[in-house]
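Dear colleague,

Thank you for sharing your sequence with our group. We've completed the structure prediction you requested, and as agreed, I am returning the results in plain text so they can be pasted directly into your records. Please verify that the sequence below matches your submission; if there's any discrepancy, let me know and we will rerun it promptly.
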Amino acid sequence: MGVIFTLFSGSLNGHDCDSSDNPSIEVSSRPSGSYTDKNSEEYKNAKGIFDTLTKEVGFSGAGAAGAIGNSIGESGLKLHNPNTGGGVNGLFQWSGWGNTVNGSRITSEGSIKAGDVSTLTLENELKLMKFELNGAYKKVKTLVGKETDVKKATMNWFLYYEGMLGNEDQYGSLREGGAEWAYQEFGGASVTADDSILGNTTKASLD
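Please find the predicted structure tokens below.
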């Protein structure tokens, strides 16, 4: 998988969380590669996403796994994996990194500075994810956070967090394979949604 990531440096998808201008590139549907290595940064990033979503946002194990599957499809679970054309970067390929042609989501929480690689830490990217889920993207908490079906969770994150509603043809199979891996790896079946946390929202939901 390392070779594959090298060949498709940038993001695995050309799009970002705001735009569907560019087609996605699905390079594999098998859950293998650096993120399955417990000593890799990608594995640590996956664990960070899972723990943050389940313990701090209240997601079910299936919901958190769906988010991880999308990060695998978006960036290969890499903190820094820029796509220069779309101006995107980060675990979920947020817009506003290299340019603002697709928006400026990556700087919205305040911890990440556009173009400053030193601010692309796991802590900061998880802060951004939580900021969005508790704010403008709180609809995703309802659609994904309470989900018990991994495939549905993965698709709904793709549609409503990645902003790909109407572009389902770009979904591919890499996301679901990665989500199923995460669900098994992190014991997702034993984690139920925590409604008391999921209800902690601060801004208007998605239209």
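Summary note from our side: The domain at 2-14+33-188 is CATH 1.10.530.10 (Lysozyme).

Kind regards,
the structure core
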